[in-house]
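Memo subject: From amino acid sequence to discrete backbone structure tokens
Action wanted: Derive the backbone structure tokens from the amino acid sequence.
How to read it: Take the token row as a discrete description of the fold.
Attached in line: The record itself begins immediately under this heading.
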Amino acid sequence: MGECYSKVFIENGGVYDCSDFDISKVFEGLVIYEVIRIREGIPIFLNDHFQRLRNSAGLSDCELLIGFDELREQILQLTGISEISEGNIKVSFKYSESYTGYLIYFVDTHYPGPEMYENGVKGILYYAERRNPVVKEFNHKLRSSIYTELIQANAYEALLVNRNGCITEGSRSNIFFIKGDTIITAPDDCVLGGITRSKILAICREEEFNVDFRCLHAGELNSVDSVFLTGTSPNVLPFREIESCKFRADDTMLKSLADSYMKVVEDYMKDFVSK
């Protein structure tokens, strides 16, 4: 099946068998996408993902290919037919001379285990910059290169370092640093604004945590107490080490943020069901 990990997928509103999936329609040309986590059959933060799709399409001067109500209906249709209640769904918009359209399908998903949340994961530094960081656009060459480095280092995530030596974001996540009572994270215009990141920042505002919006220089890594990433699949996941620097995975502020985030997810699910 390759990219598609369910028995059927949706293309431009139609339902098709996975054997008909054309991988060129999600990897070549201009492709913008969202990956949405399904929990108990519910697409988590669907409204936020749709808004980011809208923003990405607008910034790329492209037409939005589906409305919110249609997207919601088709995702629920796919989960029902596929009989998959836990997993990740990818919504992919492709724009090219040969093909313009959208696909909705389940992708292969590996969630961190309990020991990874307890002990933290390993990270590496990778010197690269996204062409347009605020647009979620697929870059197959960069993704493949990073994946190779992660395999060789037996690491979970790569932290991207720009030409100024500053850490901006993860290859598939947003990054936060904790130094004393301050949380450090990159400014919004330097990164792809992740949905989980936005929820964490909202929690920080509610709890009145001190947030310093700046890109941490790679040379400062050994001065911070804890580092964690946020993303659709891992939620809030601590690092135990990045390169030669070690970090605390049991930081009190980190655990508070992780617990508060899961409460936000649970509240969203209850609200989704009630509506």
In short: Residues 132 and 192 are 9 Å apart (CA to CA). The chain has a mean pLDDT of 93. The two ends are 35 Å apart (CA to CA).
